[in-house]
Amino acid sequence: MTGTPGQTVGPFFEYALAYPGGSELVPRSDPGAVRLFGRVLDGAGDPVPDALIEIWQPAPDGSVVQRAGSLHRDGWTFTGWGRCATDDAGQYGFTTLAPPSFWSIAVFARGLLDRLFTRAYLTSDDVPLSIPDDRRASLIVGREGAGYRFDIRLQGEDETVFFSFPGYRD
Amino acid sequence: MTDPARRRPAEPSQAGVTAEIAALGGSGGAQPRMDYPPYRSSLLRHPSKALQQADPEGVEWFAPMFGAQDVNPIEADLTIQHRGVPIGERLTVTGRVSDGDGRPVAHQLLEVWQANAAGRYIHQGDQHPAPLDPNFTGAGRCLTDSDGCYRFTTVKPGPYPWGNHRNAWRPAHIHFSLFGSAFPQRLVTQMYFPGDPLFPYDPILQAITGARDRERLIATYDHDLTIPQISTGYRWDVVLTGPRRTPTEQS
Ligand SMILES: [Fe+2]
């Protein structure tokens, strides 16, 4: 069966898709809390203020969490999924736990006709060997203070690597 | 939202954009072209390098789970979120969400958002000088049932102007956000209404360059879903291709 086509998330999604606590997978006071943050930039290097970033990750021990409660977080249940709209400076940020290998990331934006998938890896060792040498750095977080920076460049020389998954609407 | 296209010195005409649309007709696959110049905002926002093919890894074989604590059943009725009744043609939208093998995507989150009957979003950035409706927010959620079925009650959204080119109007649509059982099935799209005269002029819909592929985003009017004295009914099914699990990963 052919997959239903995607369409842009458009400019007017924030009032519907963003919600309190969406970007806080754990409370900041959690002893394991880390910050995953960055900017979304367009082909001219300008910030994209109307993008939506979703992360999906396992627990620090690698186990896949299958628990409800992402939309109404109770402050105790780690669900592994979060959502954050970019601000006027194109910035997003999550409070979460560090996965063993990578955060899986979906990117939506006005002007982006379909979603994009990328991964934020903690170390270069885990980046698939199929990724060309000169593009691997775009998939690796930078340590910044107590957090991890992962900028997403939609287009250009230093464009972020985006994945397509054969068999999934590719 | 001030679209950058709105500030361009030479504002393109609809005729010019329609010609660009025609020139690109049939040039893409079943999905929208990411690089689609008639939609001006895509120019600097599409990847210029090839996507890297990969198999899902680890957590990507799964999708986030949502439950009763996440979604109140009344969120599926966009007409009862305020004290009064919203203005507009009340309608039911229902359908089935399935995976690439036709199996239901059960108990999964589905979100919708839309303009009101006058074509105005409640979003701050929407400057279209059409009235807001104090009785309509235009956002809803539901979980699919065990057969993958969903159902919303809402009002028909109006078409609205936007800044892509001179006299650009979006056909009436409802935005949908869906999850499958594996993260790569994630889909954000728009549902349209049958016979909308604005279809050929709209670079967002036409970015899906094949007519038969565009039809997959157009709901069907279904008189059996129409409720006497209450609302008209539309049906729209969604296919989230995948998941493609190997036997090992399924165990
Ligand atoms: Fe819209």
What brief labels describe this structure?
heterodimer; A: 170 residues; mainly beta; Protocatechuate 3,4-Dioxygenase, subunit A; 5-stranded mixed beta sheet; 4-stranded antiparallel beta sheet; 1 helix; 2% helix; B: 251 residues; 4 helices; 10% helix; 22% strand; globular; binds fe (ii) ion
Characterize the structure shown.
- The complex is a heterodimer of chains A (about 170) and B (about 250).
- Chain A has one helix spanning about 15, and strands at about 35-40, 50-55, 80-85, 90-95, 100-110, 115-120, 140-145, 145-150, 150-155, 165.
- Chain A has about 170 residues and is mostly beta strands.
- Chain A has a single domain (about 20-155), classed as Sandwich (Protocatechuate 3,4-Dioxygenase, subunit A).
- In chain A, the strands form 2 sheets. In chain A, strands 1, 4, 7, 8 and 9 form a 5-stranded mixed beta sheet that branches. A 4-stranded antiparallel beta sheet of chain A has the order 3-2-5-6, with no helix packed on it.
- The longest helix of chain A is centred in the N-terminal third of the chain and has 4 residues, at about 15.
- Chain B has one domain: Protocatechuate 3,4-Dioxygenase, subunit A, CATH 2.60.130.
- Chain B contains 4 helices and 12 strands, in the order αβββββββββααβββα.
- In chain B, a hairpin with a 5-residue loop joins strand 6 and strand 7 (about 170).
- The longest helix of chain B is centred in the N-terminal third of the chain and has 11 residues, at about 15-25.
- The radius of gyration of chain B is 19 Å and the shape is globular.
- The mean pLDDT of chain B is about 95.
- Chains A and B meet through helix 1, strand 5 and strand 10 of A and strand 1, strand 3, strand 9 and strand 12 of B.
- The structure holds fe (ii) ion (FE2).
- Fe (ii) ion binds next to strand 8 of chain B.
